[in-house]
Amino acid sequence: xxxxxxxxxxxxxxxxxxxxxxxxxxxxxxxxxxxxxxxxxxxxxxxxxxxxxxxxxxxxxxxxxxxxxxxxxxxxxxxxxxxxxxxxxxxxxxxxxxxxxxxxxxxxxxxxxxxxxxxxxxxxxxxxxxxxxxxxxxxxxxxxxxxxxxxxxxxxxxxxxxxxxxxxxxxxxxxxxxxxxxxxxxxxxxxxxxxxxxxxxxxxxxxxxxxxxxxxxxxxxxxxxxxxxxxxxxxxxxxxxxxxxxxxxxxxxxxxxxxxxxxxxxxxxxxxxxxxxxxxxxxxxxxxxxxxxxxxxxxxxxxxxxxxxxxxxxxxxxxxxxxxxxxxxxxxxxxxxxxxxxxxxxxxxxxxxxxxxxxxxxxxxxxxxxxxxxxxxxxxxxxxxxxxxxxxxxxxxxxxxxxxxxxxxxxxxxxxxxxxxxxxxxxxxxxxxxxxxxxxxxxxxxxxxxxxxxxxxxxxxxxxxxxxxxxxxxxxxxxxxxxxxxxxxxxxxxxxxxxxxxxxxxxxxxxxxxxxxxxxxxxxxxxxxxxxxxxxxxxxxxxxx
Length: 545
What we know:
Helix content is 39%, strand content 15%. It has helices spanning 4-41, 109-120, 178-181, 195-199, 203-208, 217-232, 250-260, 286-299, 308-314, 317-327, 346-351, 379-389, 395-405, 410-435, 464-468, 479-498, 534-543; strands at 45-48, 51-54, 56-58, 61-71, 94-96, 140-145, 154-160, 186-190, 238-248, 270-274, 359-365, 441-446, 519-522, 526-529.
């Protein structure tokens, strides 16, 4: 017979063993959970460019890693001012990447533009503060990724900001990439040198150059940033073979120049050009623009002779930027034909089919220049604009084509003339040229007018908050704007992924074709449409100054 006491002792021992095992398993589980929590709370870390960069998670969202203020080139200061960008020297140890880098030297044109938009929407401009963090050491980029594990590399979208090449910076509130990153892309935004520090040509700078060129420094910065992306983006889960550059206004114009430039060959596969065709017909050479450089330096008291370059580089950036409006108004905003970055005028490169074979989305807004017109608009302003843009002897022909294209008042005609010359018509010419190299060309016209937007209509820059899904709190919106935002974000990211903006649930966007004006109207309703004023553009393009 069994001993009841012994049986009880065995049962008690078995229960103790079970309790011990359960406690051990529970401890392991709690440790695992704690380890995961610690990992989640740990800031994202990536080794790139021979540095260890420590970013941040977006507002506690452990899925989105943000790296701010990553240097992609050496500071363009001192002896490196007005020189092509030099490589960044890797720093030892862990480097924080939680703060945006400084904006490049500029005045307050950017905040002033936003204040003007706010006023015209009937909102207070006080919400827009002055730009304060401005330094010449400014060659930094920012990055948003939800794919640091990198198991399947994601397409990359590199944003080049606008601002006339004299204003703007990579981390404007409307340019933050977190909402695009949620759609399965890695987003990068970059700074580049602006104004006189980024685009000034000067005989002394040309003479010291190994290539006998000057100017185009801001574009060379953009190329250096794209080289950084090519070399390092895989560490952030991006695919270096699927890079899309996208930008607006001057940023989009620069992208057109990069498509034409042999120096940018292979650095991107796709491009989205938002209101930026206008440099296509620029023929200015280094020597042409050097005249303005001489005027600026003369106004700053820098004469010829020994030590000229040293005196130029000893000037503070504040002195240089402040002197430009008086000494060289309207200058230092464009690429120059230098025989290196631009071997010849961009129009000639596109006409010859010698540009880079990028797949493109390109378009403009319905009322690009309306916000800049002095009201009320009159016939005198219209004829002044004709003189500024059209050769003598051709103005009557252009005016006939303009009257045929627009049945509205003089303001509508002036809006089309100025917007057509600077945005619509050059963009069509780029689309036509690019269609000779790829069938993946898509043209849009943005026509949405926000609530309370009667003074601006579909203004220059209006599409940006829709592209990024980052509308300012003061910008009026309704359900139409929300739907349009979702559609445009989907189009833009789908194009970056596949070279085709079309996708499940999206209104069909037909590809652009030779002699066809089919395009996608991005407005109250998203639909394919016709009516890109091609006949007017043909007359204008052959008649322009």
